[in-house]
Amino acid sequence: MAKAARAAAAWKVYRDVSKPGTPGLMARVRAIPRLIGAVINGRYEGMTKGKLALMGLGVAYLISPIDVLPDFLPVIGVADDFGVFLWLLGSLLGESGRYVDHERTIVRGSVDAPAVE
Prior knowledge:
The protein is mostly helical. The protein has a domain at 16-64 and 82-111. Helix content is 74%, strand content 0%. The chain is built from four helices and no strands. It is globular. The chain starts with a helix and ends in a 5-residue tail after the last helix. The mean pLDDT is 82. Residues 52-87 form the DUF1232 domain. It is found in: Endomembrane system.
């Protein structure tokens, strides 16, 4: 059931990335370092430091040689890594898309704001 939910989340991110008017894939990928910096510095409240830490643990799990289910087990050993990868990809692309929208709102707000005299 959890695998189906992760696959559905990945499909939703794909639909969001390909929807007209939303940030494209490369805009989202380029925004990831800015997103991380903004979350760490407290300039972006759309994502908590806890979720950022959880994503960091996901990256560490993917590159770590220690595995919950060893990779030598057929199918099952790779499925847990793939599930973490799908979750991480979906979360990062989704959050970075919201962050790009946030940046656009801030820029638009500063341009549309009346001049202070």
